[in-house]
Write a structure and sequence with these properties.
Low-confidence stretches: none
Structural class: alpha/beta
Order of helices and strands: EEEHEEHEHHHEHEHEHH
Shape: globular
Distance between the termini: 28 Å
Strand content: 15-25%
CATH class: Alpha Beta
Helix content: 25-40%
CATH superfamily: P-loop containing nucleotide triphosphate hydrolases
Strand order of the largest sheet: 6-7-8-3-9
Oligomer: single chain
């Protein structure tokens, strides 16, 4: 479903020096497959997710989604692709503070096929938030906010869910439960999952895991 080929991305430091963040010869993810990607803080994990999601364009290389090269699309076309096919669980959740849990999910749907109130409620209820529909993020615990973010990521029935350090803001007691929840929901909704983390314990939860250092052959060299 997803294939990354000869992907390169670099930034310029304040002194003008080019810093290569990604130099990945190949990475592939199958439909409905779940993969954990391990990397230290600042190693480029979030940059890779943003390139795969179409938020960032690589300097060179291809990001093939079901055979279509996202890197060759315009920004508006990448936005449409992301709305139709990709769910993103951000590390800081990125919930809109002035809106309720239900509204946050519904607003996410507006960028895809359109708002489906019944399905939004179904997702939140499945995540144990059926009695928190009208709560704003500030009225929810961190774990509950994460579940709203997961519901929003699944709301448009994506083929791929990207999760950026989804347990990074959680108490260790709840991190395992959160991982189980994300994996179960993705499997039940037939979505592939690419989850990045710096926590080695996360890798044990996945049948397949990679390290960004191994993928990033060019940077390592």
């Amino acid at each position: 479903m997803l294939e990354v080929l000869d992907l390169k991305k670099a930034y310029r430091s304040p002194d003008g020096e080019e810093q290569v963040v990604l130099d990945i010869p190949r990475f592939a993810l199958g439909a409905k497959e779940q993969v954990a990607l391990m990397g230290t803080s600042g190693s480029g994990k979030t940059t890779l997710l943003n390139v795969i999601a179409g938020i960032l364009r690589p300097d060179s290389g291809k990001v093939l989604f079901e055979g279509e090269d996202l890197a060759a699309l315009s920004e508006s076309a990448r936005d449409k692709h992301r709305a139709r096919n990709v769910g993103y669980v951000f590390q800081t959740f990125n919930l809109l503070q002035g809106y309720t849990a239900l509204d946050n999910v519904l607003l996410g749907m507006m960028f895809g096929p359109g708002a489906d109130r019944a399905f939004a409620k179904e997702l939140l209820d499945e995540l144990g938030l059926g009695d928190r529909l009208k709560y704003r993020p500030s009225q929810l615990s961190v774990g509950q906010q994460q579940r709203v973010a997961l519901a929003r990521a699944l709301a448009n029935r994506p083929k791929l869910v990207l999760a950026d350090e989804p347990t990074g803001n959680l108490d260790p007691r709840y991190a395992q439960e959160a991982l189980e929840l994300i994996q179960r929901l993705c499997a039940e909704h037939d979505a592939a999952l690419l989850l990045v983390s710096h926590d080695e314990k996360v890798l044990a939860r996945f049948e397949r895991s990679e390290t960004l250092e191994d993928l990033n052959a060019g940077v390592r060299a």
